[in-house]
Protein 1
Amino acid sequence: MTERDPTLMSGIPELVVLRLLAQREMYGYEIARTLRVLSADALSLGEGVLYPALHALEARGLLCSRPRQVAGRTRIYYQLTSRGRRRLERVAANWRGMSEGVERILGAGAHE
Amino acid sequence: MTERDPTLMSGIPELVVLRLLAQREMYGYEIARTLRVLSADALSLGEGVLYPALHALEARGLLCSRPRQVAGRTRIYYQLTSRGRRRLERVAANWRGMSEGVERILGAGAHE
DNA sequence: TTCTCATACCTTGTTGCGCGAGGTATAGTC
DNA sequence: GACTATACCTCGCGCAACAAGGTATGAGAA
């Protein structure tokens, strides 16, 4: 199955989740917290976004998970698969292209 | 009626259209062309995106339009209203926040 | 004890947006 | 007479983001 592109927009949850997990294994709640901290609240994925996203990503074979008991609580740790790593490169490149495009539009007209 | 935020994502068509029209009056086909050129094809809104977007923006009072006959063809020129101008500031600020957030995530981990 | 807060997971339903695929019409060129 | 560029439009699909809800544990305060 060929991986579809997010055509143009969005896919930010996918992008940032893949990016964080590219560094180290993390569990859902931790991802949410890290995202909030790193982005200074500019990016805060609600749990209604995050968890479904994680499940979808795993179903697509981009992540794999394993549960772990820590202090009586269940955490589900996710890590990137090799497919996930390749996917990250794609969506990151995509983001950059789009982002630069927008910046050019926003910056245009300086020569008025 | 209070203007809703695009919560987190997207709204790029709205953003770039408002931004272009902030500079000068333009018609739909011209907007599409300009977008393609300025962004070096990174941003190309299909007509199935652009025209509905223009209509929606006008319906929300952010644009106003006037038809003009040029060389036997009808062009519909759009320009920003003052509400549109205010809206542009909002969505542009929004974009920057979001964009910087993403960049921080993408750039994170350099200290590994 | 009970209350509340932080941790940690989850699902359901709605909505709106981006998009592809189509459709109309004129002007000019080959 | 066909083809391209200009110039507008609509319908309908799919999906992703979101809000709002739900479960359960552990720790500390009241």
Protein 2
Amino acid sequence: MATIRDVARRAGVSIATVSRVVNEQPGIRPETRARVHDAIDELSFRPNAIGRSLKAGTSRVLGVMVPTLANPVFAEAVEGLQHEARKAGYGVMVTTSDYDADTERAAVETLMIGRVDALVLTVRDAADAATRAWLDAIDRPVVLIYNEPGSRPTVTVDNAAAGAAAAEMFVRLGHSRLAVVAGSLTGSDRSRARWLGFANALQAQGCPPPVKVEIPFHQTDLGQAIADLMAGDAPPTGLFCSNDLIAMRTMAALRELGLGVPGDVSVMGFDGIATCRLLHPSLSTVSQPSRTMGEAAATLVLKELAGGVAEPFTILPHRLVEGGSVGPPPRAAQRGPTTSPTERGVPST
Amino acid sequence: MATIRDVARRAGVSIATVSRVVNEQPGIRPETRARVHDAIDELSFRPNAIGRSLKAGTSRVLGVMVPTLANPVFAEAVEGLQHEARKAGYGVMVTTSDYDADTERAAVETLMIGRVDALVLTVRDAADAATRAWLDAIDRPVVLIYNEPGSRPTVTVDNAAAGAAAAEMFVRLGHSRLAVVAGSLTGSDRSRARWLGFANALQAQGCPPPVKVEIPFHQTDLGQAIADLMAGDAPPTGLFCSNDLIAMRTMAALRELGLGVPGDVSVMGFDGIATCRLLHPSLSTVSQPSRTMGEAAATLVLKELAGGVAEPFTILPHRLVEGGSVGPPPRAAQRGPTTSPTERGVPST
DNA sequence: CTGAAAGCGCTAACAG
DNA sequence: CTGTTAGCGCTTTCAG
């Protein structure tokens, strides 16, 4: 691999001149510039980013950590982030944490040793004391994404409001016995926020508190969990799932049990991943603008890197996507006479 | 940020000693080591990877390029690759090419300038002359993934055999009028290989050649394309899609048209992404071990980096997943009397 | 067992 | 307009 010195020798100039040509600085005689360019081409020289970084003290690399790339919601965000970073000439180093707190810490540590200039992270719980401790100790720009706003700039949606919106939709349709199926209600801040928003809205509407079902990460077969949930003489008529992947698996489990969606039970997801429209019935969900969130996180962190001050948080709009998986509760479960949801209309606030 | 010099001063030793302690080299008096460790902790010193890289001439970073992270098949591979890389102490820089040949070149160039030690790539077409030219010019270990084996070590499945297996399944069930719905039949080497395997197998069985339908990347609504395909008096009874995402969209389009799957038409995908099991009917597909492929690519490239010689190619096994989206053709379309597929059984070779 | 010093590839201040 | 030189943080001979 040719170095700047090789080029200088070949072109018969000093390394400073080569550096100037490479960095397109003014004040070089055109013919000198041409000679240098020739030498560069002949040796197919590419300036060594490491030498450059060492001098500059920056790497022009962003570090990104998400729980997993196997969930399209994160993959899409990384895709958007990557595009935005590339436009600005930044590379992106990616790691996954598998929703594990220890892995999170270690992974971020590795990214920092790798000298990324800034970080974009999704942590399990931005409010957790231990997490906050190491997060606050990071001496570089950090932007959280998907997490609940806390001590670091954050790009997210209003999870509590989104949870409430889901609850209101269920209530509007006549549901009152509801359950929440979540990946890790206790561990994940956003999951908790959605839960709280959901449960509070239900309470405000005079509904009994929802049942909680927790699904361990990596457990893909929800058959037993859903069977248990739906057993008994007053099973829930609506399920609010903490993400679309879980919602889709829940629907599959319900079908196994011979229960109709939304005939016997309505299912609602969260995230708005691309494939959820392709189900039949299509999945009703609270959609987050994942790609845009990734882009926004990149923009934010890049701005901070450029010396700007990042806004403490960016709340992007969520959107209630009404698919086919949510409908009125089965007749037997309705309390009092109700007309069809469309006839009832939306309450005027 | 503390440097090795700060630590040395604080511990009252030379920077060489600090370096030795950090790199756990033998021959340091225990008390000296302890003093250095204390200084390191007090200053929370982390060795600067850039300085280290400059000296060593390697970055301990792998560069990865895939067409898009929005297709879970690639996201999963990157996930696997990343895990494997981290185990070996390597970081992973990711880029996407959007299936565009120019972007591919530019993205790889950017990765190389970023001084990745080696590359793992999925290119549109590993057989394309222009692509081969720049690929062969890369002066670092390169492993291709998903591509057809060519001039560089490759981790993939036997796409032609997989296409043939799909064809044989269709024929076994009694289909003869088939179509291929592909993302970019002309541009993608693997898509082409699957097509050839599929078409050749059909010919061998005495079936007419399949119809081709090409779907531009980014076109997510296949309604019109599928409507056109299914118009006419002898529409295909089976559709072989070049990937699961397209297959899922195809199924959605068919449903819009009021056509039953597999009653009126059978649909088969390719990739085996997680969500395809969750459809109803579940998608029949040729499954690739994506995560394992990512891991294998990492292992291969890491081995080469360690001085080993990489195998020219690693063909991982594909698997025909029989879901609910494929069945016998509708009665009217069958040629000659046939019994149900299970009764007919599999031909004894 | 420890220290001094060279040098990885590059940029930028300073000289000419 | 161009060259000389110092130095970014680290590892690694070579001396002692």
Protein 3
Amino acid sequence: MGTGEGARGRGRPRTPGAEDKILAAALAEYGERGWAGFTMDAVARRAGVGKSTVYLRWHDKDALLTEAVTSQGLELTGVDTGTFRGDLLQLVHNLLRHAHSPGGWAAWRVAFDVASVHQRLGGFSEAVNQVHGLQVEQICQRAVDRGELAATVSPGILTSLIYGATLVDALMARLNDRTADDATLDRRALEIVDLVLLDIGPEGADHS
Amino acid sequence: MGTGEGARGRGRPRTPGAEDKILAAALAEYGERGWAGFTMDAVARRAGVGKSTVYLRWHDKDALLTEAVTSQGLELTGVDTGTFRGDLLQLVHNLLRHAHSPGGWAAWRVAFDVASVHQRLGGFSEAVNQVHGLQVEQICQRAVDRGELAATVSPGILTSLIYGATLVDALMARLNDRTADDATLDRRALEIVDLVLLDIGPEGADHS
Amino acid sequence: MGTGEGARGRGRPRTPGAEDKILAAALAEYGERGWAGFTMDAVARRAGVGKSTVYLRWHDKDALLTEAVTSQGLELTGVDTGTFRGDLLQLVHNLLRHAHSPGGWAAWRVAFDVASVHQRLGGFSEAVNQVHGLQVEQICQRAVDRGELAATVSPGILTSLIYGATLVDALMARLNDRTADDATLDRRALEIVDLVLLDIGPEGADHS
Amino acid sequence: MGTGEGARGRGRPRTPGAEDKILAAALAEYGERGWAGFTMDAVARRAGVGKSTVYLRWHDKDALLTEAVTSQGLELTGVDTGTFRGDLLQLVHNLLRHAHSPGGWAAWRVAFDVASVHQRLGGFSEAVNQVHGLQVEQICQRAVDRGELAATVSPGILTSLIYGATLVDALMARLNDRTADDATLDRRALEIVDLVLLDIGPEGADHS
DNA sequence: CGATAAGCGAGACGGTACGTCACGTCTTGGC
DNA sequence: GCCAAGACGTGACGTACCGTCTCGCTTATCG
């Protein structure tokens, strides 16, 4: 309104599809070669662009990788099945599929890298905390409102448990070179949710 | 007689303390500078040895880092307090301290790197699976024997939950630049264990 | 057009003055430190360029040094004074100055290295043989035409004598840590030429 | 007499043949690989001794190489044929054979290296100057005494010419990958001596 | 004859240069 | 002004060699 979007115009506009091609190439390279062996030259070559085109958009390797990986972020279409257990099951299932997928796994790795360097965690940390944490909080809030959940339960701890369980599950699968099909993930989601939800004492089995 | 060891003794023996000095230096460098910024020259310099001494023992950067980090492995002195809840509490506390410590955190990062590259996971995967998994299995077995735990509960899932929760806790702490004191870790361990152990419905265990 | 040159123009062109700067730096380093103590890093640093810029142009140390030294080739602007003795005097004087100068001396050393390894003498051998040999041949031919020289005299032997004498002269000077001024070189050139030209019996030329 | 050769005795005496084996190995390595590619480890291995045995006898690479090469020194059994021309012919022949032989060629190379570094030329320079120079001086002196040579001729210049000619001859042979048989060397010696001795004008051919 | 001393093969040690490769920047000509 | 190409200065990589240093052993002389 009014400003006309600043100094737009003058000179050739940026090639429209470039960002996506580069992000895809970066993700593919990262998945295939890991952090060592991930080179900017290779990304540019695979994307079919020049290095200047890459550096014009991202300041350095970290920035590109972070965006490549977080852009592939988890679909967080508000989970809401009507019951607490249903919500958790769907959430855990989504998380498991995410962690086992190449893009999701890469996202976790980058999170660890970012967390290890203590720098430029500005946006990243907030994204993880607010977007993901908020989701669990909403689920918990609805469950408390429905009388399904004790208000004393901390959503933060619940988040740690659920996210951590799915993460470690993917880690173990990779270390053992297993690939999980959808049915296996479903079964595992069920086990995780039940373990969290229920008393696990011997006589506590009466939840059938 | 006794040692055997084949062609021992020819030539100058390797300096006894060198391995430890180098591993310690590697860990310190990795902790201070992260994976990028971790250089073999710096490790050698800090350890006060020549690069050849390093490369004589480890084939490359990855190998050194992996060993540096896994050698600092979690103390797994058999946890056994007499009750299931006590065992879990102590285990979670140990894991939290480990994940929050520089060495333990680095170990997790390397685990992710190893899992991402699909290579040379020979010893590593087994260590993680058997040593750590075994610990939890033993705790569960004893609990079942004492009648504290339903035999249907999968120790694998329990492991994922516990390890994952501590890992994610450390990750969040780092992303938010928080450092946790021992009391905080204790409280958090309590919350995690209770969340796992108990039915989390609104009125506690009387869900029959 | 006109230049043609095939696939020219793509990418940043090589910095124009770099070759010369590097060659000059190489020659200076070689002169100051000798073959041992001649390092590529030092050459690059002195030339104010990166190592990659050096290795982009020369495959290795030998190649750089060879070119550095042969590029400083003897000025072979056709000697032609009108008399055989005059030609020889000027030639010997030039050769003496060349052999006593740092660049010329280095050129001789490299010639010896090249000759010792039996490799990549492709261009080098021809340069020495044809360019230098040709010069003496032309001088001899003109002398024969003028009736100053017996046609039976082999220009090859004369070349060996003259080049060898100047080379050994420089060698001895260096071994004795002497530096020769221009006047001394002139006197020595005179002695060499006279010794070659004349019968050295006790009463001069009347040996019939 | 008296002293009994100082503190000889006590402890194991040095292995008698070691020096020779090492020198031979050094010469062979130098001849095959040149100065670059000449390594102490290879010399020790080829000689079948440990590095300590080498370094016990020579302080460093230069010292070993210098001695290896000068020990193979030219046979300087006083040339004395009775005539000046005969003496020169034999001397030039000896020098040519020396320069064309691997050991002699290596000796020249080392002379150049030593002369280029301006260091520790103490013994070397004197050896070259006095031993070799003296030989020519004696030949000249006898020739003057016999009335065959003008006293004004400088033996130094004559030395430069003769040594230089043989050196350059060997250099050219190597650059062209030629190997010279004995007959060729004989013929060449004749040409060199005649060129030096005689007036080379067109009517000066009456020396038959 | 046993203690003492030096030589010896082997090979690890702290350095340092090698030649390669990637980073992030810069400089072309073309679009 | 964006783009592909690619050269640039910098600096780490993993290798190889230098000259030194320990080992365990052998070989001599001296007390």
Protein 4
Amino acid sequence: MTLDRSATMQDLARLAGVSVATVSRALSGKPGVSSATRSAIARLAREHSYTENLPARALSSGRTGRIAVTLPNVQAEYFARILAGAAQVIHDGGFSLVLETTQHEPGRQSDAIQRFMKMGVDGALLLLPAESDREISALYDSGFKFVIIDPIDQVTAPLPWITSTYAMGARRAIEHLVDLGHRRIALITGEPYLFSTKERLHGVRQALEQAGIPLEPGLVRESRYTDPAGAYEATLDLMRLPEPPTAIFAFNDRLAFGTLRAAHALGVAVPGTLSVVGFDDLEAAELVSPGLTTVRQPLSTMGSTAATMLSQLINEQDPPAMHMQLATELVVRHSTAAPR
Amino acid sequence: MTLDRSATMQDLARLAGVSVATVSRALSGKPGVSSATRSAIARLAREHSYTENLPARALSSGRTGRIAVTLPNVQAEYFARILAGAAQVIHDGGFSLVLETTQHEPGRQSDAIQRFMKMGVDGALLLLPAESDREISALYDSGFKFVIIDPIDQVTAPLPWITSTYAMGARRAIEHLVDLGHRRIALITGEPYLFSTKERLHGVRQALEQAGIPLEPGLVRESRYTDPAGAYEATLDLMRLPEPPTAIFAFNDRLAFGTLRAAHALGVAVPGTLSVVGFDDLEAAELVSPGLTTVRQPLSTMGSTAATMLSQLINEQDPPAMHMQLATELVVRHSTAAPR
DNA sequence: ATACTGAACGTAACCGGTTGCGTTCGGCGG
DNA sequence: CCGCCGAACGCAACCGGTTACGTTCAGTAT
């Protein structure tokens, strides 16, 4: 004979002949309960399939057991994989995960931060947050616990943030092309104001400088990371130059896909006439032909690392570092070769 | 001068010189408050940036304002796009979204349903739930509100479930191949016990029957939807037959990608020697070469439709239908042509 | 035997809202 | 002028836990 509503602590207390306080202590493993009572209560809880009322616990304890993750969108494999890594750790830590997609609407975003964040959750993972450094600092000052993954810009507040080694990855990509013998290397960048873009550019500059190759402004085109069509146009444009590049480093894989399509449309052989390197190593990178040489980002690890740091923060432990940069890795496939 | 903690209703009540009850009624738009008082309270709330305490509201009202979404994983574009569609509606409805990835672990899943479901949220969207029909029915009987997307098997309980028109889509795919002149058409299916697999098979049979073509068992191979490598092997196998097929219908795009790679590895021209059709229309379908002819599923719409139905359920309205099948659409690209 | 101590448990306040019911009061019909 | 009524608001219980503090009582030192 089960109750129509699920059992509460009062029910268990009545059944066990003790007070609610004792039940609470017994179930949460706190001291002050004899082992006999404790096991009796545990048994009753099992028999009557007691389920804690999360809102009630949250209200009285101040901890909700929930972690929010905000991200621009979830369709993009890039974000989805970071989210997946974070979700694993969040669930394993006994938290539940509140998802907030911002769709790059600044209004909704600060709404999320101002309202939703302040009371629904114990902390948050902010993925590519649209907030300015000022807003971020304000949020930090308010005492809210959060970790930033892939910030728009350098973070100055003393809070943890996570990126991958953009500069190093870009450097490896260029070095790879240089090693193959390329000297006219074009770039298709993403949004120029993004930290990740600046870092990639930095890495490119380092590598070119070391190789003694000047960076020709005419070989640098700008698109948006989400817009392969921009890369498509840029590639058409680049290949129509009097002296076209022999290699293109696209700042992410989606852009690289646009480049590959453009090359295909132009009848330009890849890697015969044109080498192409991407960044991210999305699943599709090995599906396209030729398989795309690209810089792999440890996306899932970025998510799980961030989640780990956040739970340390929530548990009042000091995180191991303020800025963690996770290693990237060059994956050589078939879109790069020596220039003819 | 702001408070260190965010303002509560008690604060507003004190400031406005009224009781908490009045503040509650004013803020939630309930009757019994003069318009003067109402606007005064609204102004105070704004000035002191009052934020409702969600757990408290949930505790007293019984409604949490949260909707759970459970799915096997979030990396897969298939699920991610359904999730995205659902997230949009959930947020627009003023709910927040609790994400639970099940990773196909049955233990964790029923845990989610038994515990987490029962009190943290007002309802749930179950994406490809691993539960048996019996468990689903039990959950339904417990009064919990939920909608199923893409069930493992036919749902018998009187609850809403959503699929796309698998049979019709598969039928169109076969008809397309038949129209092109193919008569030896191979299949690479997913898990045979899945509703979606059975339905696709059903559609295939209908189309073949209508065309007067027998379904040769030797041309039907089985893989798993998540395993392109299985399709790769199956394709190698099929093309080594004494009389190889002239077309392969892979039951989803990931499998089709495996087939394309196998064809490439074998030096079999697509669509010259072999036509390939997929199912889903993932982003990569137009990135691979040749562009994949496939059956488009309205993934985002499946998610948003499900979320809409769920909120109707939560608001005690009757959903328009128990089983909604959303239209699929054949997208013809360049992986299909007449057999040589 | 007395006083002290600590384990085990109860009491009650509290978290921040929601809501049924009671109270006040101004206006209006008779 | 009395009585009635509804609008506007307060009171207080309640949702289901957590936790500081008080109480009981058995065991032990003196």
